[in-house]
Design a protein that fits this description.
Number of helices: 7
Order of helices and strands: HHHHHHH
Radius of gyration: 16 Å
Strand content: under 5%
Shape: globular
Helix content: over 70%
Oligomer: single chain
């Protein structure tokens, strides 16, 4: 296994990236999360993204940025949510990745703009997500995307 400059293998980075990503989801879905758990969730999302630098490809990197943006959006922190949502889309565009990943990036930007109070930009990214969803062939992926879009107050079917 190739190692990073600290001697950590790609497999270990991957395992840590996955475990931390899943831990963030557990915290996102936890009712009555405490302030300390909110902080832990932020740190875990960033740590997961760090490990994907060493273990993943562009889609993994973008997904990590998307999750960080989601965490900040859930916490009502617009500026870092917008930063990471924009970074997610940049990574996908640089790699030429479309479909579910790009639609999710647009959903993340819509959510971050909603938190920031940027209604027009929010609506624009909702429409971009819907348009990109046309290329998603997996029905479960489409369901996930639209479930997430429906969480945005500005969303209309």
């Amino acid at each position: 296994m190739p190692e990073d400059d600290r001697g950590v293998t790609r497999d270990l980075h991957r395992k840590l990236g996955v475990d931390l990503f899943n831990h963030v989801w557990e915290l996102l879905e936890k009712p009555g999360r405490t302030k300390e758990e909110d902080e832990r969730m932020v740190h875990a999302a960033h740590a997961s993204r760090y490990h994907w630098i060493h273990a993943g490809e562009a889609a993994n990197h973008a997904t990590g940025e998307w999750q960080i943006a989601r965490v900040y959006s859930v916490l009502g922190r617009a500026e870092p949510a917008l930063h990471h949502a924009r970074r997610c889309l940049e990574i996908l565009e640089e790699a030429g990745i479309r479909g579910f990943h790009r639609a999710s990036a647009c959903e993340g930007l819509a959510k971050a703009h909603s938190v920031a109070g940027h209604v027009e930009e929010c609506l624009r990214y909702i429409e971009l997500a819907k348009a990109e969803s046309e290329s998603i062939t997996d029905e479960e992926d489409r369901k996930v995307l639209f479930d997430q879009l429906r969480e945005i107050p500005e969303y209309r079917d």
